Amino acid sequence: MLYNPPHPAETKILTRRFGLPNSESLDTYLANDGYKAFLKATGMTSEQIVDEVKISNLRGRGGAGFPAGMKWSFVPRQSPKPKYIVVNADESEPGTCKDRVLMENDPHQLIEGVLIAGKVIDAHRGWIYIRGEYRYLIDIMDRAIDEAYKNGYLGRNIRGTGFDFELSTHTGAGAYECGEESALLESLEGKRGIPRIRPPFPAVSGAFQCPTILNNVETFCAVPSIILHGGQKFADVGVPKAGGTRLLCLSGHINTPGVYEIPLGFPMMRAINELGGGMLGGRKLKAVVPGGSSCPILKAEECDINMDYDSMAKAKTMLGSGGMVVLDETTDMVQFALRIMRFYQHESCGWCIPCREGTLWLRKLLTRLNQGIGTSDDISMVRELAGNMLGRTFCPLGDAAAMPTISIVEKFRDEFEARLARPASSRMPAPGDLVSIA
Amino acid sequence: MTFSQETEARFERLLSSYPEGRHRAALIPMLMYAQDEVGLVTQELKEEVARRCGVTPLQVDEVVGYYTMLRSKPMGKTHLQICTNISCLLRGGDKLWDQACHKLGIGHNEVTADGAVSLEEVECIGACSWAPAIQVNYDFRHNVTPDQLDKLMDQLRGAQ
Ligand SMILES: Cc1cc2nc3c(=O)[nH]c(=O)nc-3n(C[C@H](O)[C@H](O)[C@H](O)COP(=O)(O)O)c2cc1C
Ligand code: FES
Question: What ipTM was assigned to the predicted interfaces of this complex?
Fold first, then answer.
């Protein structure tokens, strides 16, 4: 099973069952508070459940950090249409690998979170949209779902409560854009993953044009603890306005990378030095990607910061998806910026022009700069082009590409200049990269 | 076209998993599971899946052209996927990629002449904390060293 040994600095709520024998089985789940929260929720009104989630200050863990309780309250419960629950398990933001450990080690916790959300809006059907590369996890979730059906935790009249719920997995097929909620819903319906115009938001018109609660895996996984122990207890773990813990995916140049559960507001330098075991080879810290590749990068001197939404916003970056990538002094920032742009250009769905063309032009410019070809004006052009994409694309993928690029060019411009000052490398650029963008 | 019992059972379950009249929703999963059995999305497969999901072959083409995991070209017996995205890059994923291209004599989305191995440079596969990571068909390999990759490639080439 994929998890790292618990670290004393962790606060284990969502991951507390990890490491128990057969932690993925229904028996282990039941022996450790499993499905008690759902049974408790069946004795509560929808308002009471939503209130607990609001009190908990749980914010979405998929990237945008929208308050979950508020999102749930937007669903028009009186609508005559069927209502649905959709789990976003597309996990494709570079640097992020937490939904994977949650589903692998404790699949029933996710099922229980979904059931409670279903109870709130009187939904009787849900899907877990899992990226295609995670086939073994689809098998794990399918087995857990089967087990739940067999033991009356899914299906008709769940455990005699009179509540019905059907749940299935749905595989993606390789597309980062399908993690974006509206593109995901298109994909779920058997189409290309192209974003929908909003409003209406999924809460009003989601899966199959019906009211839908759509959240990230980790968001749903937090719900059983919140209902069982009360929203206040969860809120108390974090900081004001952002409750509970988060799974931090630590990667890059550190000694002990891994997925760690920490309270919101945990200091970034402690994450590097304690959880991460310090910098690899004792080298110096250069920069941190705080929450997946789409977040603006922080320079070493900006990393003395607490990881909560407000502190991150003050530093002009985000907690994002929890994918924290640590870069040491040996990192080539021009190459790093190019690698990020290659990703977004490849994954742009092509629907809107600022994103489709913007990412391509930026990729070409950065490819040339990385080869030492171009002028100082080209560096400014990268900054300007990326700036022009911000807020002008159909979905936030364009922003996701622009934000890290702007921060890297602004904070590490000297490295781009130094690259140009060197004699151009002997490697000729590929013909496709030479196309003029002027 | 007929499929194995297991795949047929999956299809049956799929078709009952969506609201009435929304069989199109089963399209992408059905293509993925069928491709696992057939190896690629053939014309015959497109027509069969179109029939079962109640869509036109053109609507199947639309999604096959969009999703990178759906393939119209045969891959090798083993499909080797190497992540070079940021967390893997910092841990030598780009060097693993060069090493594989060099040793196998093929590039991105190409197959060795004997059909044993195909190679793909992939985007983040959700194994960043265990980088560099690769996938051998659907199996994850974590914290991969150049030595391990070398042995793996020898094995894959010798195995056919
Ligand atoms: C390009 C793009 C990719 C995204 N990928 C994911 C993803 O892989 N997983 C995820 O949960 N959210 C992803 N999101 C965020 C979702 O759109 C959505 O905000 C989230 O799933 C809502 O759940 P939450 O409120 O629980 O975070 C992505 C957003 C964008 C713009
Ligand atoms: S960057 Fe390689 S698995 Fe995430």
Answer: 0.97
In a domain, B71, yes or no: no
**Residue A333 contacts residue A287 (beta carbons within 8 Å):** yes
pLDDT of residue A242: 85
Alpha-carbon distance B99 to B117, whole Å?
A: 14
pLDDT, residue B159, reads 66
**Domain range holding B27?**
5-66
**Hey, is the C-beta of A298 within 8 angstroms of any chain B C-beta?**
no
Let me know whether B62 and B82 are in one domain: no
Considering the four listed CATH numbers 3.40.50.2000, 3.40.50.11540, 3.40.50.620, 3.40.50.150, the one that applies to the domain covering A26-237 is 3.40.50.11540
* For residue B24, pLDDT beyond 60: yes
* Closest ligand 1 atom, residue A183 Cα: 17
On whether both B39 and B96 belong to a single domain, the answer is: no
**CA–CA min distance A343, chain B (Å):** 7
DSSP A93: S
pLDDT in tens, A67-95: 999 999 999 999 999 999 999 999 999 99
Q: Whose CA is nearest to atom 1 of ligand 1?
A: A397
- Are both B134 and B108 inside the same structural domain? yes
Q: Which of A141, A171, A128 is nearest to A26 (CA)?
A: A141
- Whether B82 and B154 share a structural domain: yes
Secondary structure (3-state) at A17: coil
Asked if A133 reaches chain B (Cβ–Cβ under 8 Å), the answer is: yes
pLDDT in tens, A350-402: 999 999 999 999 999 999 999 999 999 999 999 999 999 999 999 999 999 99
Structural tokens at position A213: 């609660």
d(Cα A314, Cα A305) in Å, to the nearest integer? 10
State which of B66, B95, B115 marks the end of a domain.
Answer: B66
Contact A125 B19 (CB under 8 A): yes
Q: What is the pTM of this model?
A: 0.96
Which residues of B are less than 8 Å from A432 in CB distance?
none
User: Do residues B53 and B97 share a domain?
Assistant: no
Residue B68 makes CB contacts below 8 A (sequence gap 6+) with A173, A174, A175
Fold of A333-426: de novo design (two linked rop proteins) (1.20.1440)
List pLDDT tens digits, range B37-55: 999 999 999 999 999 999 9
The 3-state DSSP class for residue A244 equals coil
